Amino acid sequence: MSHIRPFRTGDEPDLADICLRTADAGADATGLLDDDDLWAEIFVLPYVARHPEFAFVVETDDGRVVGYIVAAPDSAAFEEWFATEWWPRHQSRWPRPEGDPLPVSASRQDGIVRYAYARRGGTQPFGDDYPAHLHIDLLPEAQGQGLGRRLIAALEDALRAAGVPGLHLVASAENTGAIAFYPRVGFTPLPSPEGTQVFAKRL
Ligand SMILES: CC(C)(COP(=O)(O)OP(=O)(O)OC[C@H]1O[C@@H](n2cnc3c(N)ncnc32)[C@H](O)[C@@H]1OP(=O)(O)O)[C@@H](O)C(=O)NCCC(=O)NCCS
Q: How distant, in Å, are the alpha carbons of 33, 125, 133, 166, 168 from that of 128?
């Protein structure tokens, strides 16, 4: 039986690996970009660096980490920190892609790097009612056993205890598994930018 426990320093390499292996709309993204490390540096490692208290992992009986949930309790503040402190440390490794807007020939990696440069506090349309946001990923071996539901519950308990009134997330519109999952665990779909599906929940 796998169990859920709080994130611990030292879990980061496992979280980065899970992020990569689920990053392509829920499927393995290994080799999709020139640099596999980019996914985790944007979508999971900043969260555990800034808010380890809102991160939980799934651990198997033999001690392997096979899933996680991470969150920012105040998305506007988190995005501001990402823009001013986290991402600047990465700018020499991933320089800003040329062209504004990006040329149609731009690579998928260029598009993701451009997204990282564009993240800013105060640009989140769901901030007032649902200030927190999350990312959740389980390796295939851990999916479909109720662990996603339990990770969501663990995070919600932590956010409620901290007085956070609501929670949202943005899924890829192509991620049919995720789009089936969130309503089953109490989230409501909201009008969303093209190619995405936003879900939200009051706490
Ligand atoms: C999406 C994900 C987090 C769901 O977690 P999970 O542990 O597999 O889901 P659970 O077993 O807790 O399922 C909870 C409910 O959602 C439903 N559900 C989960 N995945 C589903 C799927 N792919 N299709 C249909 N229903 C699904 C379950 O049937 C269950 O419903 P019920 O309790 O009413 O019977 C997990 O599958 C995952 O990490 N996928 C790959 C990465 C990913 O897509 N992350 C989300 C990015 S936005």
A: 34, 8, 12, 9, 11
To test the ligand 1 pocket, which listed residue (30, 143, 181, 197) has its Cβ within 8 A of the most ligand atoms?
Answer: 181
Pocket of ligand 1 (CB under 6 A): 22, 26, 136-138, 143-149, 171, 175, 177-178, 180-181, 184-185
Residue closest to 181 by CA, chosen among 193, 159, 197: 197
Phi, psi of 137, rounded to the nearest 5 degrees: -150, 135
Chain segment 8-37, per-residue pLDDT in tens:
999 999 999 999 999 999 999 999 999 999
Per residue in 108-131, pLDDT tens?
999 999 999 999 987 777 778 999
Q: What is the DSSP string of 78-134?
A: HHHHIIIIIGGGGTTTSPPPSSSSPPTT--HHHHHHHHHHH--TT--TTTTT--EEE
Q: How far is the CA of 51 from the centre of ligand 1 (A)?
A: 24
Distance CA 110, CA 36 (A): 13
Type of residue found at 65: V
The reported pTM is: 0.97
Contact 96, 54 (CB under 8 A): no
